[in-house]
Amino acid sequence: MVVARLWAALWGGPGVALACCFMAAAVALRWSARRGATAAGARARRRRRAALESMDQAARRFRLQNPDLDSEALLALTLPQLVQKLHSGELSPEAALFTYVGKAWEVNKGTNCVTTYLADCETQLSQAPRQGLLYGVPVSLKECFSYKGQNSTLGLSLNEGVQAECDSVVVQVLKLQGAVPFVHTNIPQSMLSFDCSNPLFGQSTNPWKSSKSPGGSSGGEGALIGAGGSLLGLGSDIGGSIRFPSSFCGICGLKPTGNRLSKIGLKSCVYGQTAVQLSVGPMARDVESLALCMRALLCEDMFRLDPTVPPVPFKEEVYTSSRPLRVGYYETDNYTMPTPAMKRALLETKHSLEAAGHTLVPFLPSNIPYALETLSTGGLFSDGGTTFLQNFKGDFVDSCLGDLILILKLPRWLKGLLAFLLKPLLPRLAAFLSNMKSRSAKKLWKLQHEIEVYRNSVIAQWRALDLDVLLTPMLGPAMDLNVPGKAPGAVSYTMLYNCLDFPAGVVPVTTVTIEDEAQMEHYRGYFGDIWDKMLQKGMKKSVGLPVAVQCVALPWQEELCLRLMREVERLMTPEKRLF
Is the entire prediction scored with pTM above 0.85? Predict the structure, then answer.
């Protein structure tokens, strides 16, 4: 009787009024929080507009003062050629900088890849050490690299207006080597996506085709370099974030071993996660430019500024060796079915390497689904996504993230229940859900040990076949905008080497043919699930787009990885470049 009366009271007039008050308060709080995010977005866009106007004015001013400069000839130079002309005095650092400032401004109009102009590059010119390996070279930076006085927002409103107090270590080293950082480039919100869009700066597009994604999370870099607006850039990679944009935009990119280059001053959404290693690496038009960047960064200044980086300079004799290589390869990882263009790219590269005198040996790392679903996903989300989600409080969520935020917000018990229920129909999604649950410190240590055991088992496999390097497919061609977030299983070809912490690089080798496009109509994937269907749908209308292969080496053997990349590039000259 008492309970009945209480129930009636609650659901009578006063109860309804109270419920309405709670709902109104919740809506007001949400509106207030979103209002802050809206204001942050408006500030970010105003700041960028002003920066782009400064870029345009600087480039115009220089052109008026130097009407005889052949900017097209300058832009056509490779990085080594530009460095030679800058060192000899044939070209001035001002000519290089302002020509690329103007070109980057033009490229941004079509791709939306630049987030800000690092205006102090104009004063940096007079301070660039002439003896540096990158003297006078304009360098673009992914937005996550801290730059004194600038914002690294990661596309999140809570970071808007938060200026860096100092340069990240790699930026300091670039400057000490004479390089001139000149722009920050766009990223997907939070950087945990291989698309490139965020609520602050919007969607970046692929320079080859505007309906396609440039990849991510270093997507702004990929678009800018792919369209000729930069010769050299720095990206970061925790699941393919250097390699996807390089593949999608037809350029070269290297993900080194996790601690080969310093990560001090790199902005992130989650700090302290070490199970799956983040890497810093270069992106450029060609392999020699990647090697030159690594030579420049692996110097005494790097080792002094970050003593946790192994003091191992670039091993020139390994990179320049002409010794025939013993190359492992696989046509598929049996998790993500390669597209017809991916398979053809791999096989044509294999045949060319064999014809050049190298030995190709079939090799597939063991238990790839376990590495992806249990080790990688478990490592990235060991706290159930709690730390990651804190970055989104009161913010808009960009569509490039797909259903990630929704899934991470599910309570632990519901993730487990859904994983159980979905396993018969959608085994991959079920496995990812199961491993996105929070775990205790004891279970995290166990997982980290399992990653070590797995890494050692793959190395043992590798050693048993006496391999030097490995050749694998690379996801491509570029997907439609907003599709990457709906096909997360497609990270399989790249994520594996973050889990293993092996250096891996991407080289474009061909473009999609009409025959590839026709065969794609019959693509079904290995699982026939929603991820496979989205991949098939998102890669249509791709004739002429670049397709790459991936080159891999054992930990700390970046020079050997670059050696294979250089050989692949020499043998497989792409049919088309944008610049």
Answer: yes
